[in-house]
């Protein structure tokens, strides 16, 4: 059999040489195109492809991080702990310099995801009373951020892992959960937890439903959950972490969950249905009343992911905009997630997961009674839970109040509608579907969207690329109010430029999206992404 091994080695070497040549002459795109689905399954080729994927990630990552791909930077020097602690001034100066040099500014209104900041002037008005109450003696000034900092600082070293040690934190958590449950129309049976973010809320819900199914339906050994394809990847993450199979269902042409398709995807192994209010990509709310009715009919629990809309839809609805009934008013909705660190305007690391009753919440809890370190219990993924986040979450809800949220929602909604109606008037562009709140995706009517994104980025905007179909996601925040005219002006000019010059030269992130869409083997794209993430986190 030795000759066979030799033959394979020779074949692999030849192929490798051919691919390296292709990389030199045609660049990375050529190689990627050459790596087709079937190739991976030829013996010996799998390893080769892994090697190519790694090589390409190492070359490509620096284009996105602004680093260098040259050989000599391959291994960055290990950073040592300073032998002698540095002075506060020196550290602060260095940190501010780095932040100024590279980081996006959360207040500049140039980003369309990730940061949710109040405009400074509004913040100071909204929190006036709370600020006075909390900060009479501090002399720190009276804006929202400083208020939150002050609160956070007071709880800097507290830990909510042990609910008995810091009763103040426990109270903040219970009351925060309660406040959110009340505006999401939960009755007095609704319970829940504060978590570190939307992802943790979703992980906890999926874990709870999995454990519930283990208990109630022990015959199910391979649990499944059904969700529209637009559901947030946190559910996919939960599926992967907790061994629940994710069954994705396509959405209709309106980008909303197709309830019939969801029902058809239900099997004897289904333990959970999921829907969004709204889904992130296009800002569109799934038909929750219909999904809820179907869930009741099929005897299945339903999680409504309101991470994005939980702190926006209630106010939009009260302002009179049409919003599908998305919350606990639907009797089939058994749990919800809502992020305080998005439109709740809290600091990063705060979200709420709510359940219809303790019948579901119970399965979220964890305990370990055999540890020599003591009897151990925990309510969520984290062990130690930063108390500052919990205190800040509570304080922000109290300070904003319904009037604060309503006022901000009205302004952000007006900005959104201004942007949407102007985008619709730009030749070559459209809005994907009919967004329900303060987010939308720009679609194409003939324009290369990825080139448009590049053009906008050259004008200083940070764009969010979406796919299937290609689009540009915009979450509208208070900070956009002051730049909305500039946005429309720049977008109009960019669209015209792309149209006239017929540009398609995609760089950086657009190139990644362009490539990904051309590779039929999504497993390969996943492998590439994972390699990229290791690259991102190994070099500055
Ligand atoms: C942001 C978001 C999540 C995940 O929340 P993180 O706080 O980023 O972990 C889940 N679902 C939707 C719809 C979201 O917008």
UniProtKB/TrEMBL annotation:
It is a single-pass membrane protein. The modification N6-(pyridoxal phosphate)lysine is found at residue 342. Keywords: Endoplasmic reticulum, Lipid metabolism, Lyase, Membrane, Pyridoxal phosphate, Sphingolipid metabolism, Transmembrane, Transmembrane helix. One of its GO terms (cellular component) is endoplasmic reticulum membrane. InterPro entries: GrpII_AminoAcid_Decarb, PyrdxlP-dep_de-COase, PyrdxlP-dep_Trfase, PyrdxlP-dep_Trfase_major, PyrdxlP-dep_Trfase_small. One of its GO terms (molecular function) is pyridoxal phosphate binding. Its EC number is 4.1.2.27. SUPFAM superfamilies: PLP-dependent transferases. It is found in: Endoplasmic reticulum membrane. Its main location: endoplasmic reticulum. Pfam families: Pyridoxal_deC. It is an enzyme of class 4 (lyase). Its cofactor is pyridoxal 5'-phosphate. GO terms for biological process: carboxylic acid metabolic process; sphingolipid metabolic process. It comes from the Eukaryota. Pathway: Sphingolipid metabolism; Lipid metabolism; sphingolipid metabolism. Belongs to the group II decarboxylase family. Sphingosine-1-phosphate lyase subfamily. This is sphinganine-1-phosphate aldolase.
